[in-house]
UniProtKB/TrEMBL annotation:
The keyword Transferase applies. Pfam families: SpoU_methylase. Residues 20-170 form the tRNA/rRNA methyltransferase SpoU type domain. GO terms for molecular function: methyltransferase activity. Belongs to the class IV-like SAM-binding methyltransferase superfamily. RNA methyltransferase TrmH family. This is tRNA/rRNA methyltransferase. SUPFAM superfamilies: alpha/beta knot. Keywords: Methyltransferase, S-adenosyl-L-methionine, Transferase. Its EC number is 2.1.1.-. GO terms for biological process: methylation. Transmembrane segments: none annotated.
Length: 260
């Protein structure tokens, strides 16, 4: 059964018609393959080549794609840039130098929501990358609707082809996922409750009293608060609290029961 026009493939993260990647005169199959791998990492599957130096298909590209076969197998090759761009509504040209053109300039982070908005209107977009050694030429910039420039160290902005593709693809993908910037891997446990922590503190403080740790009575409240702050900052899990209580008992030569 044929696939409905505009439907999303699982590899694209549920997005129909993600951005097209256009490589102008790529020189090495290795670089094409690495760029394809970077594309699939970010849910991009439509790769177009314009006059690849070593021809197509290319064994080195396949090897360096490291399993990104859906990208390699469906790569399209063109002799003219105009043909590679013909079905696109908007084209963004990557370059470290804006030259003399009067064009909107995006960073990769700013480009991602722009492309998602354009695609959301039913339009098709592409991102153009120039040859490895020279980058895009003035005529390529003239073909685009806007320029994309990566804000890097002004003294050294050189990127290899796969790096450049990955930077654009990464921001595209991140703009569409809801992943917290920080999370704690819990395995089979869960965060300690306040009751877990209170039982730990009471247990520990009791043992410290017995051992004579709180030698000066008037300093005990402040020292106990400091100890509690140490453990509260650790974001302990339930299992970690149980382990600590077991350690306390073991140092006293006893046997800890989890419900104590």
């Amino acid at each position: 059964m044929s696939e409905p026009i505009g439907s999303a493939k699982p590899e694209t993260g549920g997005i129909a018609n993600p951005p097209v990647i256009i490589l102008i005169e790529p020189q090495l199959g290795d670089n094409i393959g690495k760029a394809a791998r970077a594309m699939l990492n970010c849910g991009l599957v439509d790769l177009r080549l314009v006059r690849p130096r070593d021809g197509w298909p290319n064994e080195r590209a396949t090897a360096n794609a490291s399993g990104a076969d859906i990208v390699i197998d469906n790569t399209k090759v063109f002799e003219r840039e105009e043909d590679a761009l013909a079905d696109l509504n908007r084209v963004y040209v990557t370059t470290a130098r804006t030259r003399d053109a009067i064009k909107p300039v995006f960073t990769p982070k700013g480009l991602a929501p722009e492309m998602r908005a354009v695609i959301g209107r039913g339009e098709k977009v592409g991102v153009m990358f120039g040859p490895e050694r020279t980058g895009v030429r003035n005529e390529h910039i003239a073909m685009g609707d806007a320029v994309v420039t990566v804000p890097l160290n002004p003294g050294f902005t050189s990127l290899n082809l796969a790096q450049a593709v990955l930077l654009i693809g990464y921001e595209w993908w991140q703009a569409g996922v809801d992943v917290p910037d920080y999370q704690l891997m819990m395995a089979d446990t869960f965060p300690a409750t306040k009751d877990d922590m209170e039982r730990l503190f009471l247990h520990l403080e009791s043992e410290l009293d017995e051992s004579g740790f709180f030698r000066v009575a008037e300093k005990r409240p402040g020292m106990a608060r400091n100890i509690r702050n140490i453990f509260n900052r650790a974001n302990l899990t339930h299992q970690e609290v149980q382990t600590l209580r077991g350690m306390i008992v073991a140092m006293r030569g006893g046997k800890f029961k989890a419900k104590d």
